[in-house]
Amino acid sequence: MDKSALTSRWARMDGTRLRAIGAWLLQGGDRPEGLAESEGGRIDLRGLPLVGPLPLAGSPDELLGPTWESLDLRGARLDDLRLFGVSIRDCLFDGASCVGWRLWGVTVKDCSFDRADLTGSALGSGEWPGGSTSWSGVSFGRAKLENVRFGDASILECTFGGMRKVLFDDCEIVDSAFSGKMNSVIIDGRKGGPRLAADFGEATFVDSQIIGYRLNDSKLPRQADLRLIESYPAVVRAALALLGSPVGGVDARAASVLTWLSKAPGGEYSDWCFDIAAFGSGGDDALPLRLDDLFARVMAESRD
Q1: Contacts of 145 (CB under 8 A, 6+ apart)
Q2: Assuming Cys at both sites, which of 11, 26, 85, 198 could form a disulfide with 130, CB separation 3.0 to 4.6 Å?
Q3: Could you count the other beta carbons within 10 Å of the beta carbon of residue 230?
């Protein structure tokens, strides 16, 4: 069945029945009769247009929301969902439009989002009485991850392709793999120092960084301009001391970067990994060289 056929079958469906399917997904209850299975034994909801004035699944006042299990939602229109305490297992979202999702205490396990559009989503919105959002065994493949935030989430055995403007804020990321271009991505563990044990070996950092984690359990990208500063808070303080009080030029610009880092440091033994070329954006070729020089001097002195 091609994409147009998947869409048109819902357009031909009686509105009452379509609303009943939507209500079952968002509110739980008995499964509507007559839903077929697609290949793989999942319930066939391919191309489903789940729309409405308030696409809310679960409730902010309840700990547990509905369960989505073994659903085939490939190519579905699922924009602007608000999910509270929902359990999502063994579901396919390949090619689906999932723009603007907001998740609280949601569990996602063994699902695929290949080519799904997750633009502008909060895929973990911090602590919630039912617990934090968790992602386990999820493939994001060629998903569109742009202007996305994972907040206080647990990410286990997941795979990611390229992404742009994504923030992983105080997430635990374990046994997961990243590949492709990571453009303006921040993986920030400075709030509580959760664990990071991930494979970035096939990724490329472009104006991206990992900060506030111990990185001894992670495989980092293989690129010439990548820098790893171990126990970075002390290195930053020492680099600032070398600069003194510059009043202008490249030293003042370096001091501005280092001061910003020193104001919200991670744990004393946490690391910082970044592409140094990002500091040369806008044609400031001198700043990356100056930062490299400062860090090299500090680390050389620490070895003496």
Answers
A1: 118, 119, 160, 162, 163, 164, 166
A2: 85
A3: 15
Pick from 138, 88, 140, 77: nearest CA to 114: 140
H/E stretch holding 98: none
Residue 302: is its pLDDT beyond 80?
A: no
C-alpha neighbours within 13 Å on the C-beta side of residue 183 = 9
Q: What pLDDT score was predicted for residue 264?
A: 85
* Minimum mean pLDDT range among 8-12, 60-64, 122-126, 129-133: 60-64
User: Cα–Cα distances in Å, from 304 out to 162, 228, 244, 290, 297?
Assistant: 41, 20, 22, 21, 11
Domains of the chain, by residue range, sit at 3-160
Per-residue confidence (pLDDT) for residue 117, from 0 to 100: 98
What burial letters (b/e) apply to 238-276, b meaning 16+ CB within 10 Å?
Answer: bbbeeeeeeeeebbebbbebbeebeeebbbeebbbbbbb
Of the chain, the percentage scoring pLDDT greater than 70 comes to: 91
CATH of 3-160, one of 3.40.50.300, 2.160.20.80, 2.60.120.260, 3.10.450.50: 2.160.20.80
Alpha carbons 236 and 218: distance in angstroms, whole number? 22
CA dist list (Å): 282 to 184, 212, 250, 278: 15, 27, 14, 9
- Supply the pLDDT for residue 130: 65
What is d(CA 238, CA 114) in angstroms, rounded to the nearest whole number?
45
Residues in the chain, total: 304
Rounded Cα distance between 133 and 238, Å, is 38
